[in-house]
Design goal:
By secondary structure, this protein is α+β, with helices and mostly antiparallel strands. Helices cover 43% and strands 14% of the residues. It is built from six helices and three strands. The protein has a three-stranded mixed beta sheet with strand order 1-2-3, with helices on one face. The radius of gyration is 25 Å and the shape is elongated. The protein starts with a helix and ends with a strand. 14% of the residues are buried.
Length: 148
């Protein structure tokens, strides 16, 4: 038997032994599994709340006309504009984390802003930051105010 096969078989044996070192119903360290019999059934009957449905946003983003970060201009001017806007947005203490993570796409010195923000003020503030960067010819503000 080759050394590689022998090593693989030994590794699998050790992994199996380590995985079977606890009694049923006892938690693994750092694990959130069942600790008593019946808890699994209780969790199955009371599932966690469903995740937010963002199907409409995903469908919108599949539109071939919708700009994505992959459409970012590759010339130095567009990259520099995007970099300066991102730096100014991240440096702003008045913006939420969502606002600091919006998509900034520059193509032909036209900046497109996309993503959720918490308020109309954040939407306007980010657009003003983008418009104030030298070289920007136009800002297409597609930011959406999150109503949650």
């Amino acid at each position: 038997m080759s050394t590689a096969k022998l090593f693989l078989m030994m590794s699998l044996s050790i992994a199996a032994a380590v995985g079977c070192d606890r009694a049923e119903g006892t938690p693994r360290s750092g694990d959130n599994t069942a600790t008593v019999p019946g808890e699994v059934a209780q969790r199955a009957n009371n599932p966690a709340p469903a995740a937010a449905d963002n199907t409409d946003k995903n469908d919108r983003d599949r539109d071939p006309a919708a700009l994505t970060p992959g459409d970012q201009g590759e010339n130095e001017t567009d990259r520099t504009i995007t970099q300066k806007i991102r730096q100014a947005v991240v440096a702003s203490d008045s913006l939420s984390m969502n606002a600091k993570n919006v998509k900034i796409i520059t193509t032909g010195q036209v900046v497109t802003l996309r993503g959720p923000v918490k308020s109309d003020k954040e939407k306007a503030d980010i657009a003003a930051i983008a418009q104030g960067i030298p070289g920007v010819t136009r800002v297409d503000n597609q930011l959406e105010v999150d109503v949650d």
